[in-house]
Amino acid sequence: MKNFDSGSHVTGKSVYLDDIQEIKGTLHAAVVFSEKAHARIVNMDLSKAKRSEGVAGILTAKDITGENQIGGIIPDEPLLAEEEVHFIGQPVAVVVAEDHLLARAAARLVEVEYEELEVILSPRKAKEAGQFLVPPRTFASGNTEKGLSGCKYIFSGSADSGAQEHLYLETQGSYAIPLENNNIKIYSSTQGPTMVQKITAQVLGLSMHHIEVDVTRLGGAFGGKEDQATPWAVMAALAVQKFNKPVKLILEREEDIKATGKRHPYSSDFTIGLDSDLKIRLFEVEYYQNGGAAADLSPAIMERTLFHVTNSYFIPNVKATAYSCKTNLPPFTAFRGFGGPQAMFVIESAIALAAEELKIDKDVIQQKNLLRKGNIFHYGQVCDSNNAVKSWDESQSEFKLTKEKQEIERYNLENIFTKKGLSLMPVCFGISFTKTPMNQARALVHIYQDGSIGISTGAIEMGQGVNTKLMQVASGIFSVGISRIKIESTNTTRVANTSPTAASSGADLNGNALLMAGKQLLGRLKKTASEILNAEVTNISLKDEMVFNDNKKTDLSWEELVEAAFLKRVKLSEIGHYSTPVINFDKKTEKGHPFTYHVYGAAAVTVKLDCARGIYETESVKIVHDFGNSMNLDIDKGQVEGAVVQGIGWMTVEEILWDERGRLLADSLSKYKIPDIFAAPKVIEIRPLDTKGPKLALLRSKAVGEPPFMYGIGVFFALQNSIKAFNPEYRPEYNSPLTPEKVLMSLYPKKNK
Amino acid sequence: MIEFILNDRFIRVDQAKEGMSLLDFIRKEMNLTGTKTGCREGDCGACTVLAGEIINNRLVYRSVVSCLTPLINAKGKHIVTIEGLNTAEINPVQKSIADNSATQCGFCTPGFVVSLTDHMLSNHDKDAVHSLSGNICRCTGYKSIEKAAKKVDELKDTLKKGNEIGSMVEKGWLPHYFLEIKERLLKISSDKPKDRNSQIIGGATDLMVQKPGELLVSKLVRITSFVPDTVEISDDRIFIGAGIKMNDFFENKYLNRYFPGLSEYLELIASSQIRNMATPGGNIVNASPIGDISVLLLALNADLILESEEGSERQLKLRDLFLDYKKLDLKPSERIKYITIEIPAQSVLFNFEKVSKRTHLDIASVNSSVCICSDGKIINEIYISAGGVAPYPKLLVKTSDFLKGKELSIDHLNTALDIIQEEIFPISDIRGSAEYKRTLLRQLFLMHFVKLFPQNFSQKKILSLMLTNAVI
């Protein structure tokens, strides 16, 4: 089944936040952002701005009626700056005016006088200065000191990966509307409506029941709207509280890029030890996570980094420490992979370094160390499948990689100005929120008396197709056509206390809740049918909108059954509540069973490098991916393709730089380039791994949002191989993204004089 | 008054709104929300609409980004948004996207549909995928969109060439009202008399990014009220109207006759939408140190014919226009009327090179162009230009002078490499470090010769030049 929204998408009829019909009298808000990365606010002069045309008023921290606090995990982030600012783009004030242009014109007239303070941008510098967002954590297994003695080869190095802008096509935004009795309804482009509700109530000094949050769909999110959609919604609601008029706040692209957090840059030091058989005996690593100026989701992201230290490999002796470092940059936040990609980049760099030193191909080491059933992850969970090895082996045979390698070697001998490189990238990614309490969801199902069905869950549709999957689940349970089913907007008054749609878990959690509600309703309807047909309830089944008795079609249709049930006063609404079983984690020992299951896969990546110009293209990404038993391959393959290209972007051209004063240099789409249609790999081939899929995945169909992102890491190492083919003297540095500039300078290094 | 047709509706807007972006007009005033706001700088394509106008008695549609289109540039045209393309059932272009799972979050999708429709209505023979050079999607990874584009190629093959509109309407793929547009447009006046106090607008693709607020409150006048948008031949010179659209410039038959291969470089410059809007004249006066068109025209030894408000004209070498960073030998009252190039006496060889982070729709780190007149042994005439290596687009005069009259030899190229490095002054910025730009220009310079004189220069010889000439 294709994405249900396709029809409205292609005709432009899908409604996104900024498309909601505005109520007459709606005011528009614009944010005044800090121009300094670290400074004391000496004075703020609002007089000119207040007199500006069409201005209703200006909000500062003083106008906050509740608590000036939006931190989700740690209360360390004000909605609006008070005495100090900690990053360029930090909201300082909110101007509310008759339209968005007047609001922005007035915002430019707000004069803020700063006294500049020391700026720290690098996580290593922050560590030296003792600036942490949370205390460091260490995950360990085995004994790295003892492990050392079993190693024949020991290599140490460092690896750096850069930030990444989400570049959801729809910028952040919200639209808040006053209701009676101090109630406010907020339309928000958020992955986490409950978070918006909770923080808005906190800042406005209200209880949560005063705040209703409603989300129809997002124009992309990728983690960028998990926590960071919140402030804009709170600001709009604050303005509603003040002016009692509807208020819309939509960020312009340049504002969004400047003010919102990105993927965390990491700087890491590692030591890898291998025995004579090239088995990795030991891996020690220190991650310096650049967390930005406030915690946001950094502690959780740091935790996921620590879970993915070893990627798809079994390493008996591991010691991994992560520092979440506080710097004067916008708080870095969730982005597809959530700290996992950064960890995997480091272990892959370590293996690449070992291969480089040992003068062997990287995949020799990769292959020898793949996870097997029964291996214990360094955090205590037992690996319960051989899918790492299976997907690796299948990729070797399906894609004839030995032959491909030989062909590349021949190509490289025959060509002077173009070289190819191949790299293999296995992935093992844990599924679940690592904070166990978040692994719960609810679904509210109404069967209307005409047989149509309305479903509300906590899942947010942002293009990943979760609504389509929910429809499939409902259609499957009741055996009715899709046209009878509607997935309602995600609304906090219908489904409360939701977890954000994140961690690839939206379909698993909400789908399972829907299954539970659906089964309850189905049971009642079957009972009704058995009464009508005077049959055994165990013999009743539904198929193609008809009731079957003992596998024989009866005259009773779905519509008639529902109507009968209604007249018999059967409960036709139900809430399903799902909380993932099995999972647990003890933060004292840093051991447990945090993941419901893991997703595995292996990719073979081939790149072609123009060695005259230093530019390159990805020729092919060929993947064996563990979908479990995919419930929708159209959607799931789309997730893989999109994730791969995003991962390639992160590794190649998506470069985020700041100047020494903390000002973002790539601050617009003309300077920050994500892959376009010509930059996509020429070929992306995806083969589903032949597997039954785990029971705890929704209909045994595994989560798919994040894991394939990390196949993109293969491009980095494939490019290094292509550089090496041109310049045998090349000494790789593990510093991503590998931009055309870095490539050209590696092809033609400066000669020592 | 600004008059135009929006979908099937006649629109009359007050002159005071001529600087408003078409995007805001469509969304906020007309409440047509299928056209999306993505970046407001023409880099994402989510706001793509079609602009139809009558050219040579033919109704021609082109895709443009509505965010960078001031209303004045919609004047007299037929503007088509996604809503204006909808038929009773989803049309086959839309269906190709839905069927191939080429839409996920859907925010970019209307823009893609409009661009693909632009392809359907066009009369060139390129693949549909080329119409998507200005559309960004963050969700799909594009493979599904490529499949949709291939389907669109098949659909286009079924249309009657030269009567694409009629053919699509007949099949029910476009709403019926398209058949009446040509007649309706003829009744709308497009240009107004000159007004000296007005800000002159070309494609506005840079002005709308840099100064949207100013445009909102200025009186505007279209550049085409003053200057031609055609290419003319007169005696031994080509005269290019400074108001010509980028796409028309690159595809012009005369230019391609005298400078073979020119059209091949089109894809390296901006996007389909931007090329439908922007003008070479605008690219020149913008004076960006990395301006693609300036670099290209410098190598063609172009002259400018400048016209003042009083009507007097003067001729200036393009290379003499650039004085310093964003400083031009151009009086406020003057505008470029023609870009003129001498028709080469004998066949010339021409090449353009550009390296940017992303190959398409990106600003170059370094670009370079060369035009050479040679018998295969001696360089009779040569002009080499480069962008990104000086405060303005630069004709590499010393390098060109050195090579003129010389034999095509590795030794001469070797010496030229040193001269280049002496006459450029790149700075480190977001597009790359100074050292990178120096290295890159060395590479591009040599690649000109690899491409133009493969018999004279073996790849191995050039490679050794690249490796031995380390940039300091």
What does this structure look like?
The complex is a heterodimer of chains A (753) and B (472). In chain A, the strands form seven sheets. An eight-stranded mixed β-sheet of chain A has the order 3-5-1-12-9-10-11-20. The longest helix of chain A is centred in the C-terminal third of the chain and has 28 residues, at 506-533. Chain A contains 19 helices and 30 strands. Chain A starts with 5 loop residues before the first helix and ends in a 6-residue tail after the last helix. In chain A, helix 9 links the parallel strand 14 (280-292) and strand 15. By secondary structure, chain A is of the alpha+beta class. With 472 residues, chain B is an alpha+beta fold. Chain B is built from 19 helices and 18 strands. Chain B has helices at 22-29, 82-85, 92-99, 109-121, 143-157, 164-171, 181-186, 207-210, 212-217, 246-251, 253-258, 272-275, 280-286, 292-299, 318-321, 397-403, 410-423, 434-452, 459-468, and strands at residues 2-6, 9-13, 48-55, 58-65, 78-80, 199-201, 220-222, 231-234, 237-241, 303-307, 313-317, 322-324, 327-328, 335-342, 349-355, 366-374, 379-387, 394-395. In chain B, the strands form five sheets. Chain B has a five-stranded mixed β-sheet. A five-stranded antiparallel β-sheet of chain B has the order 8-9-14-10-11. A four-stranded antiparallel β-sheet of chain B has the order 15-16-17-18, sandwiched between helices. The radius of gyration of chain B is 23 Å and the shape is globular.
Concise structural overview:
The complex is a heterodimer of chains A (753) and B (472). Chain A is of the alpha+beta class and 753 residues long. Chain A is built from 19 helices and 30 strands.
Count, helices of chain B: 19
Class from secondary-structure proportions of chain A:
alpha+beta
The greatest interface here is:
A-B, 83 and 83 residues
Mean pLDDT of chain A: 97
Could you outline the blueprint of secondary structure elements for this entry?
The complex is a heterodimer of chains A (753) and B (472).
Chain A: H1 6-10, E1 27-33, E2 39-45, H2 47-51, E3 55-59, E4 84-85, E5 91-97, H3 100-107, E6 111-116, H4 123-128, E7 132-141, H5 144-149, E8 153-161, E9 173-178, E10 184-188, H6 193-204, E11 211-215, H7 230-243, E12 247-250, H8 253-259, E13 266-274, E14 280-292, H9 298-307, E15 317-326, H10 340-358, H11 362-368, H12 387-398, H13 401-414, E16 418-431, E17 440-447, E18 453-457, H14 466-478, E19 485-487, E20 490-491, H15 506-533, E21 540-543, E22 546-549, E23 552-557, H16 558-567, E24 573-579, E25 584-586, E26 591-593, E27 597-610, E28 615-625, H17 633-651, E29 683-688, H18 713-726, E30 734-735, H19 740-747
Parallel strand pairs in A: 1-12, 8-30, 10-11, 14-15, 18-19, 28-29
Antiparallel strand pairs in A: 1-5, 2-4, 2-6, 3-5, 7-15, 8-13, 9-10, 9-12, 11-20, 13-14, 16-27, 17-18, 17-24, 21-22, 22-23, 25-26, 27-28
Chain B: E1 2-6, E2 9-13, H1 22-29, E3 48-55, E4 58-65, E5 78-80, H2 82-85, H3 92-99, H4 109-121, H5 143-157, H6 164-171, H7 181-186, E6 199-201, H8 207-210, H9 212-217, E7 220-222, E8 231-234, E9 237-241, H10 246-251, H11 253-258, H12 272-275, H13 280-286, H14 292-299, E10 303-307, E11 313-317, H15 318-321, E12 322-324, E13 327-328, E14 335-342, E15 349-355, E16 366-374, E17 379-387, E18 394-395, H16 397-403, H17 410-423, H18 434-452, H19 459-468
Parallel strand pairs in B: 1-5, 6-7
Antiparallel strand pairs in B: 1-2, 3-4, 3-5, 8-9, 9-14, 10-11, 10-14, 12-13, 15-16, 16-17, 17-18
Helix pairs in contact in B: 3-5, 4-5, 16-17, 17-18
